[in-house]
Design brief:
Blueprint (H helix, E strand, L loop, with lengths): L9 E3 L2 E2 L12 H11 L12 E2 L15 E4 L12 H13 L4 E6 L2 H9 L7 E6 L6 H9 L5 E6 L16 E5 L11 H14 L2 E6 L12 H4 L22
Parallel strand pairs: 1-4, 4-5, 5-6, 6-7, 7-8, 8-9
Antiparallel strand pairs: 2-3
Helix pairs in contact: 3-4
The protein binds iron/sulfur cluster.
Iron/sulfur cluster binds next to α1.
């Protein structure tokens, strides 16, 4: 399905629904959307935000002719503890059958992802990422990520909830930063985003500033559109190349 998420092209949701994992989940967009879609009686959302497998959606990327960036499971977490490795294998079968596409996988269950890839190779067309919203739960996920041998390893610091301090960016190819959206959104301080941007520049890591969200750079509430994507006078849209060669630290 086409998406407004700035750093991808399509979403593919062979799983929907999830359970909260850490502070970044507090105002989960997928949960709000799933409940809305359930109320609208949208096909596939009969269970609302309850974890649900959709084997009928597995083949979706096979019929897409144009090479596409897919964000896998924007409405769930692929490595949720209740998803069997057998079902995840089925998703990776499709990924391997479609090398013209590339797939961005983002999780808060870094240890489960790590365990999964202990026994399996990450396909060349897969980018693996973890959410790093704070120091307590987010930053430790980076250590699990670094141990996974993949072409692209990325972190999503969205919603960025505090200053992350000095980050170990070794082995990280891409960093996304964003503020939170929604009525109860928590504000992001510009200095937190700039700290990450500066470290990315020093280490030669691609930096993507996704959005301010509900709170603008001026620390006032506004629409996501009004608040825009400008940080320190410009947009930051760096991304790794889909053809980045595999290097492992
Ligand atoms: S892990 Fe992701 S999908 Fe699951 S509750 Fe948290 S934010 Fe929502």
């Amino acid at each position: 399905m086409a998406t407004k998420i700035e750093w991808t092209e399509e979403t593919w949701n062979p799983i929907t629904g999830c359970t909260r994992q850490s502070a970044g989940c507090q105002h989960c967009y997928a949960e709000i959307m799933a409940r809305r879609l359930q109320a609208m009686k949208t096909k596939g959302y009969e269970n609302g935000f309850k974890l649900t497998l959709h084997p009928e959606r597995l083949k979706e990327p096979l019929s897409r002719r144009i090479p596409t960036s897919y964000f896998v499971n924007s409405m769930s977490d692929l490595f949720h503890e209740d998803v069997s490795f057998d079902f995840i294998d089925k998703i990776f079968d499709v990924i391997c059958q479609t090398p013209k596409h590339h797939y961005q996988i983002l999780t808060k269950r870094a240890e489960i992802m790590h365990n999964y890839f202990n026994l399996r190779k990450v396909p060349d067309n897969v980018w693996v990422g973890v959410t790093v919203e704070d120091k307590k739960n987010g930053v430790p996920r980076m250590d699990c990520l670094r141990e996974i041998d993949a072409n692209i390893r990325f972190i999503s610091a969205e919603p960025l909830l505090e200053d992350l301090g000095e980050l170990n960016l070794n082995g990280i190819h891409w960093v996304i930063v964003g503020g939170e959206s929604g009525v109860s959104a928590r504000p992001m301080d510009a200095s937190w985003a700039l700290n990450i941007k500066d470290q990315c520049e020093q280490k030669g890591v691609n930096f993507f500033f996704k959005q301010w969200g509900t709170w603008g750079a001026d620390k006032k509430r506004g629409s996501k559109k009004e608040n825009g994507r400008i940080l320190q006078g410009r947009e930051w849209n760096e991304m790794p190349s889909a053809h980045t060669e595999r290097t492992f630290v």
